[in-house]
Design goal:
Elements lengths: L40 H7 L12 H28 L1 H8 L10 E10 L2 E11 L3 E6 L10 E4 L3 E4 L9 E4 L6 E4 L1 H7 L4
Antiparallel strand pairs: 1-2, 1-7, 2-3, 3-4, 5-6, 6-7
Length: 194
Amino acid sequence: MRQASTIAAPREGRLCPGVVEAPCLDCEGITENPSLDEAHPSIVSSQRKPYPTRMDRTELPAAFPLLFLASFVGIWIFVTWIASRASGWHRLAQRFGSPGPFALVGERVRFASAQIGWGNYSGAIELRASTSGFYVAPIWAFRPFHPPLFVPWSEIVVHPARGPGAAPWLTFRSVPGARIRFSRRAFTLLRPYL
């Protein structure tokens, strides 16, 4: 067996076997270099790297889902922000964004479809109609940047439908350029009030 180098340790001990220039105060007098199977616990722990330089293969499955989830949520929030801006929902929300008690009043159609500006909210809208106006809100997945709206009937301008079976476009007196067209199923709820 190979002899360990013998640089003097602070307490008159020899160097710890297998570790160059590191005195061991627990095993004074050992001069041989044992194999790793027989190594002193201080040798084994001193040979471990405290900070791994690369990711363990066992850590990848735990890190990847978290990274994927964080990326998906970030991208989804960005997409809903773009959709609210491009469709005109944010402009409608500035004027009609506080529905108050009207959110729970009137007949309801769930999972309705609507085209708001260029944005198509297919099966993603809850619609309520009452004698005061209509309430529209997206399902929970589209709620970021899409607050519920309550529009009074006095603000609505109805434009005739173009084509058979199509619902008319609704525009708003106080929000020029914004428009909504509901699906036929949803528009049947609004028709008696218009």
